[in-house]
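Quick start: what a row looks like.
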Amino acid sequence: MKKRIVKKIISAILVAGTSVGTMIPVNSNVMITNVKAEDFFTAGDFQINNLDGWSYEDGILRISQNGDYTIEMAPDITSTDDSIAVESGVTANITLGNVNIVTDKDVNNNFKSALALNNATVKLTLRYDAEIHMESEHFASAVTVDDNSKLTIEGDGKLDVISDFGSGIGGDFYGNGNLGEVVINSGEINVTGGKFMTGIGGSLLYNEPEEGKEYGNSGKITVNGGKLTAYTESGTAIGGIPVSQLLEDTVEAGDGGILIVNGGEVHAETMSGTAIGGGYSQEGRAGDGADVTLNGGRIYAYAQGSGTAIGGGWTESGIAGDGGSLTVNDGKLDACSMGATSVGGGLTTEGTPGKGAMVVINGGEVDIDNGYGCAVGGGCIYDSSKDIEFSGGVISGSLTPTNTSASLTINDGAVRITSFAGMAVCCEELNYCGGYFQIRNDGVTEEYAPEGDVTNITFKPSSDNQIIATIFDNETYSEIEGSPFRTETKIAEVLNKKSYTFETETIKSQVKVDIVGTQINTTSEGFRVVYSVDDPNNEVVEAGMVYGLANWASEKDMYVGSNASDVYSYSATDAGKLSYLIDNCSSTIQGYAMTMKFIKTTAFYQAPIMMRAYAKLSDGSYVYSNVDTKSVYQIADYLYQTKRMPNDVAHDYLYNNILVSCKPDYEIVYFLD
């Protein structure tokens, strides 16, 4: 434990020192090269700082050579219907000033984008706030990033991208409609797509797609920082292009591509399509879901209607999209669909539902909510002739969840899965290895994976699409619709029906574990925790302490066998048993003391340390005390101020070795006053 604490504290100190040493000035904009007004050259309604590498004709500013460019509005121009195009093979760093493009015109019948990358690589730095708004009734993207291009966005400004009829940031309207690569490092980027389009992802095509070729797929989107907000009314917020009445049903909808979030925030919202994933197809083949990885930051995905929050596109009578994959390593995920599977396969009315997503949660905080479908699992089947009732009222039409190949693996993290009127987990397999796990079904069902001795939870579908849950927790009994279902081995098999009431109750044990107090031992130079175990029926086979570093772990991690890297458990030895009674009125209470030696640094004295006592019972279950969190400084301060040390030498030790180390102006309190 000492080595681990030293490593963490020293690491924290070094990081803090490095941050101070590399701090960027508040007025960091002065570090950007200032360009004088006379150094700009007029290009239509724009002005650009380079003499060479560009041309202007027919309302289009074309960047044709590699280089660094600053583009702003020309003097006295507040908005323009001109556009910007970066031509094939060009690598350009473009600093975008107060650019405001609002266009509704076509140049020589060229369905142009307001900003277009054609086989180009562009780093777009937002110096100020900018807007790119495509009002034209054709369906080109407001910003085109074709499948051979890469657009990186960063800077301190804000960029609003709006398309009234096409995709916000999308693929080439004249090519295959597939999006290339988009990287967001910083800034605020708000993208709104047309009614049946994407916010950011694949785009519609000008020509009929060639048979057998894919089109309208999303590309690779990486968010390292900043905030990305994507919205569309009836399309895909982030992902593949839908197929609506605008195209033949033989055309497949676009797939969801790749979304990687390492930091920052991603908000994706749609009214009746997919928030993140595949496009819908009314009668044909819907798009498959995205491969989503969350390494840090936050993802918020919300689908109001019949689309998934993260997953495959829906269909009425065709083949719904499969769910793709979701991996959460860290960060915060919120995903909710009100009328379909939240994370998984697409919904269908008369066709084939989509297969479920492959979901792996290794850490972070995950909240997956659902209206009346399935929170995690395969696509649902919608039946408009049947209504369902739940505690909040009646919903027109019912959803039948399916479990086609869906899987959910939880290795760590805080995971909560809720369905208000449907089923929380509709998976072929659910593997639980650690962390905190909660399921709520039908608004009344609660199931907690306990913090203690859990080895595995698996969900297996039966032939009639019901789900059998086998729970190995050694701590709960189960009750189904008022009829007890119990076994001597405490393994509950729960039939997860369309609607049921499932309750759990903790097995009663008379063992009680409490932390009595904390002390400082000046002889061994350490802090000591005194705790008690009341064992009236001789159930206890082991007692001990769990310690955790509060700056890097939380109370939910405080249990024996925790996967948290900053939580440690130690069993008591005979040397730790107290010879005196903790309670003179009870002979069944055994007292224990455990001492942790000091690391003699200010950082150690100030670090908050979580402490929790435990007792292991003969049946393998655990009983815990509450978690107590204190720093060595707090313990020393209390003992010093209340003069609880046994003599003045021990009293002075606290002042000379701990208190003034943390607080140099700490006021002396004399032991004999």
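That is the whole record. The helical segments are 2-21, 602-606, 632-641, 648-662. Confidence is low (pLDDT under 50) at residues 1-38, 443-507.
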